[in-house]
UniProtKB/TrEMBL annotation:
Protein's UniProt keywords contain Oxidoreductase: yes
Residue ranges occupied by any Fe2OG dioxygenase domain in the UniProt entry: 202-303
Gene Ontology molecular function: gibberellin 2-beta-dioxygenase activity; metal ion binding
EC number, as in UniProt: 1.14.11.13
Family: Belongs to the iron/ascorbate-dependent oxidoreductase family. GA2OX subfamily.
EC primary class: oxidoreductase
Pfam families: 2OG-FeII_Oxy (PF03171), DIOX_N (PF14226)
Swiss-Prot/TrEMBL keywords: Dioxygenase, Iron, Metal-binding, Oxidoreductase
Protein name: gibberellin 2beta-dioxygenase
GO biological process: gibberellin metabolic process
Reactions the enzyme catalyzes: gibberellin A1 + 2-oxoglutarate + O2 = gibberellin A8 + succinate + CO2
Amino acid sequence: MTMSTAESAAEPPLADSYLELLRRDGGIAPAAADADRRGAVPVQERELPLIDLSCLASGRASEARACADAMARAASEWGFFQVTGHGVSRALLERLRAEQVRLFRLAFETKAKAGLLNGSYRWGAPTATSLRHLSWSEAFHIPLASISGASGSDFGELGSLRVVMQEVAEAMSRVAKTVAVSLAGSLLQQGHQAAAFPAGCDETTCFLRLNRYPACPFGAETFGLVPHTDSDFLTVLCQDQVGGLQLMKDSRWVAVKPHPDALIVNIGDLFQAWSNNRYKSVEHKVVANAKAERFSAAYFLCPSYDSLVGTCGEPSPYTDFTFGEYRRKVQEDVKRTGRKIGLPNFLKQQHHITPPPLPLL
C-alpha cells in the first residue's frame, strides 16, 4: 500500500537510518545473527498477573490485603503486572488515542521543531552506531510541568491535546500513587511511612510519554524500543491491542498479551533500589509490527532531581544517591559504552562493572 504525500511527510527518517546502520553492521540484522548462533527460539506469549485495584477500596480488609499481597508478589516475581478497576475510563483513553493519531500525523519537520511540546519529540536513535541501538518508533516525552503551561510549552493548534493529557496525567497519577503506596506498605511496618512514599514526587516531577511505533517493513524482530529498564519508581502504561511488548522472565523473552481493559504497571530502577532488590526492575523491549502501527502512552513516576531515593530499611546494598545523580550516570554510561549500566553503579560493594550483554532475541 502506497503512502499519501501527507503520510510520507509525517514519517521520521527511520528507514534511512535502518539501511545505513545495516550497511555498517555488514548487512546482518541483530535477529538474524542471534538466530544463527542459537537457532530460532519461539517467544512465548503470556498474560501478566491481573489485579483488581478496586479491591483496595472495597472496605473489606481481607480483599484489600489479598490485592496488596498479589501486587507485591507480582512486583517480586515479574516486575510487571496488569491492573483493572483503576478508574481510568476507556472513553478518556480513546480520546487520548485520537489526539495521539492527530499529533503524529503532523509533518516530521513540524514535530521536530524545538518549540512544539517543549522540544520533547524523539525518534529512533539518530546517534545510533548499530541496529542494536535503533528504536523503530517516535515519541513525545513530556514533563508534566509543561502540560500545565507553566514552562511556556508551545501547543499551537493542539489545545485539545493539552486538555486530554492533563486529564490522563491526573488519572494515571492516582493509579501510580495507589500502587506505589500499597507496594511500599507491604515492606514497611508503619502505615504513615508508606502514605508518604515516594518522597519528592508530584505533578511537576513526573513525565507522560506518547509513543507511536510505525509498521516496519524490515526484519520481524526489529526493535520498536530497544531493551532497557525504566529509570523511575514505577511506570503506568496504556497500550492498544496490536501487541509487541516483551519482557525478560526466567532469562527468556516473554511476549505480553494485551488486555483491553487493563493498564500495565512495571517496577523501575528506583523502586528496586528502595526495596533492597525485593521488587524487580525488569528489562523489556517493544518489537515492531510488520503490518500495523502501534500506539501507547506511559506515565513515569519520578522524583525531583535532588531527591534522595532512600531505602525501605537498612542494611541496603546501595549507596545513597539522588535521582539527578542516577540520571547523569545513566547518560554518561550510554554515551561512553552505548549501554545503560544503571543500579550496579551504586552498589556498596562493586567489582569491575561492564555493561550487561544484550540478550539474545
